[in-house]
Amino acid sequence: xxxxxxxxxxxxxxxxxxxxxxxxxxxxxxxxxxxxxxxxxxxxxxxxxxxxxxxxxxxxxxxxxxxxxxxxxxxxxxxxxxxxxxxxxxxxxxxxxxxxxxxxxxxxxxxxxxxxxxxxxxxxxxxxxxxxxxxxxxxxxxxxxxxxxxxxxxxxxxxxxxxxxxxxxxxxxxxxxxxxxxxxxxxxxxxxxxxxxxxxxxxxxxxxxxxxxxxxxxxxxxxxxxxxxxxxxxxxxxxxxxxxxxxxxxxxxxxxxxxxxxxxxxxxxxxxxxxxxxxxxxxxxxxxxxx
Length: 291
Hints:
Layout: E1 15-18, H1 21-30, E2 37-40, H2 50-59, E3 64-67, H3 81-94, E4 99-102, E5 105-108, E6 111-117, H4 123-140, E7 145-147, H5 162-173, E8 176-180, H6 181-191, H7 195-201, E9 207-212, E10 216-217, E11 222-223, H8 232-244, E12 250-252, H9 261-276, H10 284-287
Parallel strand pairs: 1-2, 1-12, 2-3, 3-4, 4-7, 7-8, 8-9, 9-12
Antiparallel strand pairs: 5-6, 10-11
Helix pairs in contact: 4-5
């Protein structure tokens, strides 16, 4: 069993932002008031160079969380030992508070996907994921946080709901959770995800981080594009979620069409304001809100 306290080198709170390249120079030179930052760890795994110097400098002033896309939890292949070694070394170099990835697979047979791919939710894949997570947590020397993904299809081979799968997975591995409120809403609109069931049955004590992002409305679905401000129904969902998971560190995640830093800080300020006044309305008002 991995000691969960070992993952938290820095206590973090409030709403942080994802560190993106256009803002690095401004953050280094102006030191804006940001409670914490999250990096896409895969961008910092090369040895040496200016990018690594920048993140080490930033980590001296701000707590850093590491977010990944390469652990490929649901893959049929064994974990990438070299990748895990590099993640562990980076986490030590910047004193990262924790490492997170997604409940998905992203690589197979030397091929790497640009998307986070879903897999069937059943007892067979549960056993596979438990094995992978146990291996990865031992390699990293700390529990990981797993994020619920947005997806656009159902597997006929699935025999468990997403929340049933997550509850079983956390019980069997003692991993922690990163809840993406935007992904919940996108999956509700696109696939009919029961948000009420998900939130009420969520193992709330395991939720260590919340993501907020924007979606792109398409003709017949919502695209999890991370290129817009957080939408009103996602803000409402966030407020509802905080009733179950108060004081959870929250992140504004904006990956495409990246705006100026002040726009992200304004979104973070709104999240902080909502966290001080979470709503107690019935979840149906959120689940049925218009996109």
